[in-house]
Each structure stands twice: as C-alpha cells, then as structure tokens.
Design a protein that fits this description.
This protein has helices at about 1-10, 35-40, 60-65, 80-85, 85-95, 125-135, 145-150, 180-185, 195-205, 225-235, 245-255; strands at about 15-20, 45-50, 70-75, 100-105, 110, 140-145, 165-170, 190-195, 210-215, 220, 220-225, 240, 260-265, 275, 290-300, 305-310. It is of the alpha/beta class and about 325 residues long. β10 (about 220) and β11 (about 220-225) form a beta hairpin. α2 packs parallel to α3. The longest helix is centred in the middle third of the chain and has 12 residues, at about 195-205. The chain starts with a helix and ends with a strand.
C-alpha cells in the first residue's frame, strides 16, 4: 500500500507525514520493502497503528525507519488498526484465512423450510449487506448440499462477474456438471473441494468447465476442513465468507474455524421438526455448546444483523 501511495504522491511525498494501519514491511514480496521506499521518498514522519504480527518481522521495519532518521510513532488507534488487519494477522500467524460464517435465519433458527426452500428468508436490505460483504472477501464458500439444492452463482447483485473465488465443499462428489458456477463465463474462479475418492468420479466433469478441483484428505468421510483452510492459506486468501449450509456451519464450529459469526435474522417463524436448522446434527450438550460475545447488533430493513465472536476457550 505504501508503494502505491508514494507512486501516486510523487514529489509531494517529500517531507510528508505517512499514516499506516500496519508496520511497513522491510522484506521483499510483490514489491520491494516499503521501508526502503519511504526512506527514498524522503518522508518526515510515519504514524503506525500496529506492529507486524509476524514475530520474525515485528519491529524491524520501525527500527529501519528510525535508523534512517524518520520520526516513527506506533500504537495510534491500535484497536481500530488491529481490527482492520485481522485477516492478515490470521494468515501470517496460522497459515489460514479469517473465516466469517454468515447465516440467514428465522426467529426459530431455521435456514430453510421442510422442502429446502430458503429464498428469501431475509429482505432486500439484508441481502444488499451480504452483497457488500461478498465484494470484500477473497472467497465465498458453501456446502455441497446447498450448492446442489440452491444452485447459487455467488455473484454480488449488480455485478457482472464474481468478485471472489467460489468454493463448494463437496465431500461426496454430488455437484452436477450443470451447476451455475461451473457453467457461467467465470468458472475459472470456481473451486470444488472434495475427497480423493469423490474426485476420481467427478474430476473430469468439473475440470472440463475450467473449475479447479482440490482433492483433500478426508476426516470421517468428509473433507478435512483444516486441510481445506490450509490450502486456502497457501493460495494467499486472507478472508473467506462461508454461507452455509447447516452441516458445513456446524463442522466449522466443531473444528474451531469460525472467527466471526454473522446472523441475519428475519422476523418470521417456520416451526416444525422438519425445518432445516442453522447448525446440523448432532448438536452439542448445553455445557459444551459454543458460546459467543456480541460485537454488533442493528436493524437492516425488517431484519436484524447480529455479529458475534467466539468466546475464548
């Protein structure tokens, strides 16, 4: 980011104050070290929100800037900056992306009725919020059952093409070759994460349309979600939005891979034992049930937006 800003500023950067959320890097990546660029540009002061979360690099960039005679202040708006870099911090320290689990539910926790119908539980304002969320992440992920039943394109409304990769977690190899996200013009942005056994049956059908297939190790007959998130990290993805369904949502929680839970709750009740629950079987005993802390609550049209983070275990 510093490299791009300095290029845009040109000579106007000389003697300037620079404000950054994250400590400028001192290593070469997609560009050269940002610290060297800041020194060469002749900036006067650098104000930093948080140090680099990578323990191998933390503080090195600040020391290089100070050694070059640049005034450095660190820790300004630390909490806000920390929230901004959460996906990057997760990736650099754990090798996986930040996972946001989003569910649209009724008041009684259903994500679909007994026929599997879920369109539309929430209203236009909530759906527009989800579209904006999709536009900010690296990938949107759904379970195989959801992909088969709903046949989603996972393209934000109002956009002509996907803004993120589209991932289907299909342990059994059920996704038909006629699926929308395999047959639209952007199938190269589609990924099918599956088990090695399922991939043998379906790989040619999926790849024929240009989709990528990730054959991953299985856990209890299903795709290992830890293996999947590691592969996502290897791709350089920082933030993944999971949009269900219930089986995938529950599995992510069990593996402690949910970093943020977003519930869009509609003022409606489906009732009955055959409605599809937000989290699949078998559930948890109360004493071991996952618990969360509130981050945000607000109204979107007639629906409620609830943002939560898992409590530290």
């Amino acid at each position: 980011a510093e490299i791009e800003a300095l290029r845009a500023a040109g000579e106007g950067a000389r003697g300037a104050d620079v404000y950054v959320s994250l400590e400028p890097c001192c290593t070469s990546g997609r560009t050269g070290p940002c610290t060297e660029a800041l020194v060469a540009a002749g900036v006067r002061r650098v104000v930093v929100g948080v140090r680099d979360p990578n323990p191998r690099h933390a503080g090195r960039g600040l020391r290089k800037l100070r050694a070059a005679g640049i005034d450095v202040q660190c820790g300004v708006c630390r909490a806000e900056a920390q929230r901004l870099i959460e996906p990057f911090a997760m990736w650099v320290t754990h090798g996986r992306p930040w996972i946001t689990l989003k569910l649209a539910t009724t008041l009684d926790g259903a994500i679909a009725d007994r026929t599997g119908r879920s369109r539309w539980i929430t209203g236009a304002a909530a759906r527009a919020w989800v579209d904006r969320m999709r536009a900010r992440v690296d990938a949107v992920m759904v379970g195989g059952a959801t992909a088969c039943h709903d046949d989603p394109g996972l393209i934000p409304r109002g956009r002509r093409k996907p803004s993120a990769y589209r991932v289907v977690v299909d342990s059994r190899g059920r996704l038909p070759a006629s699926a929308k996200l395999l047959c639209d013009p952007w199938s190269a942005l589609s990924v099918v994460a599956t088990t090695r056994n399922a991939a043998e049956r379906m790989t040619s059908a999926w790849t024929r349309h240009g989709a990528a297939v990730w054959p991953l190790r299985a856990k209890a007959g299903r795709v290992s979600l830890k293996a999947l998130t590691r592969r996502m990290g290897q791709e350089g993805w920082l933030h993944v939005l999971c949009e269900g369904g219930g089986a995938l949502a529950a599995a992510l929680l069990r593996e402690r891979l949910v970093d943020e839970l977003v519930v869009l709750m509609a003022p409606a009740v489906i009732g009955g034992s055959s409605a599809i629950p937000a989290f699949g079987e078998p559930g948890w005993p109360l004493r071991t049930a996952p618990r969360f802390k509130w981050i945000e609550q607000r109204q979107l049209g007639q629906d409620m937006l609830l943002r939560l983070r898992p409590e530290a275990s």
